[in-house]
Amino acid sequence: MYKQSLAALCVLASLAGCSSNTTVQNPVDFVTYRDQPLVKQVEKGMTMQQVIAIGGAPSTVVDGTANSMHGTCNNYILNREGHQQPYYVSFDSTGHVDTKGFMTCEQRKLNEKAP
């Protein structure tokens, strides 16, 4: 249990230092789903076609992204040992990955609008 807690704290600390406008997400989700292709392989700047080749067709596609009304956002559902976790990948107006994380596109938009 101690090692899992320490690993979760390390992930949280590293995520907190990545960006000042990044929404804090549950580090346990990252540890649990880190080997999922969407989490492990999708990188900022990839094209939508590359993401779909890795993760397949999204559950839903939402117009606009967290940071802009231009572009789109793909919702996915990750599955592991009977548990489901929402995961989003948003694309800028040129169709390249802008952000990604463990929530839905709609949740991300709400978080960005919150003061």
Task: Explain the layout of strands and helices.
Elements: H1 2-16, H2 27-33, H3 37-41, H4 48-55, E1 60-63, E2 72-80, E3 83-91, E4 97-101, H5 105-113
Antiparallel strand pairs: 1-2, 2-3, 3-4
Give a verbal description of the structure:
Helix 1 (2-16) crosses helix 2. The longest helix is centred in the N-terminal third of the chain and has 15 residues, at 2-16. The protein contains 5 helices and 4 strands. It is α+β, with helices and mostly antiparallel strands and 115 residues long.
- The topology string of helices and strands comes to HHHHEEEEH
Overall 3D shape = globular
Characterize the main sheet.
4 strands, antiparallel
What is the tally of helical segments? 5
pLDDT below 50 for ≥5 consecutive residues: which ranges? Answer: 11-23
Helix content: 25-40%
* Rounded average pLDDT: 80
Gist?
The chain is α+β, with helices and mostly antiparallel strands.
Primary descriptors:
alpha+beta, 115 residues, 5 helices, four-stranded antiparallel sheet, 4 strands
